[in-house]
Amino acid sequence: MTARLVAGERSLAPAELDEQVRRAAIAMASAGIEAGDTVGLLLRNDFPFFVASLAARWLGAYATPVNWHSTPDEISYVLRDSGAKILIGHTDLLSPLTSLTGLPPVIEVSVPRDIAAAYGLTPGGTFPNGTHWDDWLAGAQGDPPTAWPFGLSAMIYTSGTTGRPKGVRRAPLTPENDFAQQAIFEAAYGLSADQPMVVMMTGPMYHSAPNSYGLTAAGSAEKIVLQPRFDAERLLELVERHRVTHMHMVPTMFVRLLKLPEEVRARYDLSSLRFVVHGAAPCPVDVKRRMIGWWGPVIHEYYGSTETGLVTVHDSATALARPGTVGRALPGVTVRVLGEEGQPLPPGGVGDVYVRSIAVPDFTYHGREDERAAMERGGFMTVGDIGWLDEDGYLFLCDRRRDMIISGGVNIYPAEIEAALLAIAGVRDCAVFGVPDDEFGESVCAWIEPDEGVTLTKENVCEELATRLSRYKLPKVVEFAAELPREDSGKIFKRRLREPYWSGADRTI
Hints:
Layout: E1 4-7, E2 10-12, H1 14-30, E3 38-42, H2 47-59, E4 62-65, H3 72-82, E5 86-90, H4 91-94, E6 106-109, H5 113-119, E7 131-132, H6 133-138, E8 156-158, E9 166-170, H7 175-189, E10 198-201, H8 208-218, E11 223-226, H9 232-242, E12 246-249, H10 251-258, H11 262-265, E13 275-278, H12 285-295, E14 299-305, E15 309-314, H13 316-321, E16 325-329, E17 333-338, E18 351-357, E19 363-365, H14 369-373, E20 376-377, E21 380-381, E22 385-389, E23 394-400, E24 405-407, E25 410-412, H15 414-422, E26 427-437, E27 441-450, H16 458-465, E28 477-480, H17 494-502
Parallel strand pairs: 1-11, 3-4, 3-5, 5-6, 6-7, 10-11, 10-12, 12-13, 13-14, 27-28
Antiparallel strand pairs: 1-2, 8-9, 9-19, 14-15, 15-16, 16-23, 17-18, 18-22, 20-21, 22-23, 24-25, 26-27
């Protein structure tokens, strides 16, 4: 079973989706793509994203979605590093690449009207020497190769804070992996073919979690509604119009929704919602509480990473009873918190979070196996998160080790400061990170996006923070911006804010 895809006034029926996937698999095979090869995707959430991803999976090839906010140099690097044999992209995203050499053969996708309207673009467009997507599919003749029994996961490139991104390349799924994954997706995402579901995609599928969520939904939901670009009130309108039952979100979206005037929030019928899951970033406790108060006990949270897969989950009742937790280990997952010498820590002990899961095949960083080996201890993997377990096995995160600020030998966690900032009236959003400090090594820097029409100063922000945080956690540098740099999901590009401070430093971030 495949879902009906809906975007604006466009619709792609399940039979049409199946036929396009079959044709794309034929076209990919004709282009020389075999099992283990890579297909590059430079696409917004659109029908061809689903078609190309599922066709690559059919062939046992890796679909590698590229973050289309990246610079041409960054895109070129991912394409070269992954060995992509073709590149499928929207014409407006391809246009900055015209001066690049060494691109693989390009399949261009016209920008549809709904996406063009959301981004202020001109529909259509062409790319020099590209083959149009519609012509490419129409020219596919014959039968596709035999489909792989389970296919491969997408090879997602992790952004990181230093150096070039790394491709997470997984081994093929085994029947055991597949069985365990289905149980985890049902527990963490609420996705199950046993119940009618209308899913709305709100975040870009070049990220690993929306990618797995959307492609899983394609095989289990009745309908998937694609929101071309996150807009808080538009999301509420789409939920009401399509009677959406399931969504994947990030905390920034919650913050923006809660900023809507009360009369706007009350205007829409959201009673169809059954399972709204969020992850990817810490969610301030107050934001979670207010969302549950508004939408009811439909809010769930997971913790995981591109490397480890989904690790923990919890529901609304647990969020209220254990504020700040990211949940308890999913079926088939084991979580440990280890000290500096690798020793298991007792409940409450803060250390590095290590994970083992039977649901995900082993992986390597494409071409950088040494970095993969450095993450493992006794079969358990870490992505650098710091946290602790309570007596009942619920995990609480402090922050990423790479994001942690060490000032005068003291560990400071940006997530804690960001949560305190978001509780201040007039703060729409914020980003906290470490910057070089001659005396203390690092000091705290906060960038703040105020609500429209609100004037904030460093003095009144720090005065308010001093009632919530220890003095050593107060930001030394405070900057304000009408709009912080963001990805399409609304997530802040913290790296872009941080890089100028470290560009002339004698050590890297």
